[in-house]
Amino acid sequence: MADEQRVLERERSAVDEAWRGLDENARLPAAAPPKTVPAEPLVPVPGQQIRAVGQRATRPDSRYHGLGQTRYIDDLALPGMLHAKIKRAGIASARIKRIDTSAAESMPGVMAVVIGREFPVNSFGPTFQDQPVLADEVVRHAGDGVAAVAAVTEQIATAALEKIVVDYEPLPAVFDPLDAMREDAPKVHPPKGNICHSLAIRRGDVAKGFAQSDHIFEGRFTSQMVEHVSIEPHAAIAAWDANGRLTVWATIGRITLARADLARTLRLPMNRIRLIGTIVGGNFGGKNEISQEPALALLSKKAGRPVKGVFTRGEEFIASTVRHPFIMDYKTGVTKDGRILARTARLVLDGGAYCSWSETTLGKCCVLAPGPYKIDNVRSEAIVVYTNKTVAGAMRGFGAPQVCFAYESHMDDIATALGIDPLAIRLRNAFEEGSPSPTGQVLQSVVVKETLLKAAERFGWEVRS
Amino acid sequence: MIDVTIIVNGETRRASVPPETTLLALLRDHFGLTGAKVGCDVGDCGACTVIVDDRPVNACLMLAGQADRRRVLTIEGVATKDKLHPLQKAFEERGALQCGFCGPGIILSAKALLDQNPEPSRHEIRDALAGNLCRCTGYAKLVDAVSDAARAIRSEQLHD
Lengths: 465, 160
Fold this sequence. Notes:
The complex is a heterodimer.
Chain A: H1 2-20, H2 48-52, H3 62-67, E1 82-88, E2 94-100, H4 102-105, E3 110-115, E4 138-139, E5 145-151, H5 154-163, E6 165-170, H6 177-180, E7 195-203, H7 206-212, E8 215-222, E9 226-227, E10 235-240, E11 246-250, H8 255-266, E12 273-277, H9 293-303, E13 307-310, H10 313-319, E14 322-323, E15 326-334, E16 340-352, H11 358-368, E17 377-386, H12 400-418, H13 422-429, H14 448-458
Parallel strand pairs in A: 1-13, 11-12, 16-17
Antiparallel strand pairs in A: 1-5, 2-4, 2-6, 3-5, 7-17, 8-15, 9-14, 10-11, 10-13, 15-16
Helix pairs in contact in A: 11-12
Chain B: E1 2-8, E2 11-17, H1 23-30, E3 49-52, E4 55-58, E5 71-73, H2 86-93, H3 103-116, H4 122-128, H5 140-159
Parallel strand pairs in B: 1-5
Antiparallel strand pairs in B: 1-2, 3-4, 3-5
Helix pairs in contact in B: 2-5
């Protein structure tokens, strides 16, 4: 047994060595590029896969991370490369009356300026293409870009933004999603109403379930806006070749989708665009779609030079996407002993100014809203609302953490009110093997109760004070 | 323009730069040492941490002129030609580097600590890394890795 273990370990370390092509203590010269790179791609080998479970593993790329040799976009430079900056509206809702870029264009060192009207198709988005690359007629949130500048240095580009004059006619704005749902609310995308998308899931008969219940509990739970704050800001480089082909290096997780979106905005066949997804310095959902890339491409085309754009930390907060703030109203009917007979959940998602990944988030949170519990009568409704705020998009879990916070808080409230142990009420209602989900999917490999019991044992639930 | 002379990773280097140039811009744009990262450019995230005369510094907040005639250590100078620094090895083994963007800064903050205090408590490690933000790994693995490295360095010194 011990020998077998040793053999396995030896094999494993031999594989590790082969992956890296580097001796344990081998080191590359500090500044020179590596001579030996991991030669073998990480192809799963039968047998090894089984041993991977429960094993400790190291990331082959972490050696370069630790040596400072990993090249993120901002570490790359092309000859003649320009630096781009985007002028942000700074006003939540307004009509653009005039944009004057002439003073910026005549600044020494400024090589190109673009505004929204210059894009062949000035809209993009993973679900609905409702977001302009640069706002041309209407500003819908303060982080909307209105013009972009490419200059020989970042400082000149930043200074040039100050020289761009934009005349705004302020329009009424709406910031609260519940206010935005009123008939008389200012419309973010007129003539369309502010409801971006909605979804409802129904199973059983909630009215009957509530009628049979001994107690009914209601609660409202809210969650706030969250920014991903990847330590690496959004960054991209765009460059055209002499044959009219565009190459974009971008910190984007979904490069095929990004290429399609980019091709659409530039009205360019997709085979003319090479999109290179480089190593990403943190994504968490915030780098799943294009943002400044079409603007960089157009600047590069106008200037005839490669253009790099890197968001400032401030832009990360106002001009990249955030996690949806939720307003969640729960109503649950239970028997005396804490069995759930019916539950309704009504979720209002603050989607911000554009759709982005709202529809995806909506679907997921709607299915998950009732929680991992056997409930025969369920109604789950979710609505995404446009507001004049930072765009909400994808972020780790697509709405799952928000509803989890709500239904578990709600369960605690019910347990406390009924005088039942919070663990016991969960065990009484938790999904089991073969339980149907709210959409009727028969669930398999369900270990909710086992997990709860094991966790309770591990952290000493019984002896808590 | 001002002239600066800096000993970077043991090598004397000179540059003539505009006076508002930060040490970070000098290292990245003039010397090609891109290991120090631009995360926030306002001294909040620590991704640009380098060691100046034995002390960890946010290179985005120090002007190149302020670093004149000083010794600067960047991540590129931490390993020797044939050996990883124990911190780099420990970070790799503990899985403390995911996207890796904060890594160089954190390794240098930790190195400045271990150079002064070879046997730090977990609390002292956390304190030394307080100026470095990480969004992927959580901080537990980072603290574990620094502890491992401290132990490795002490045992290396015992055997020397």
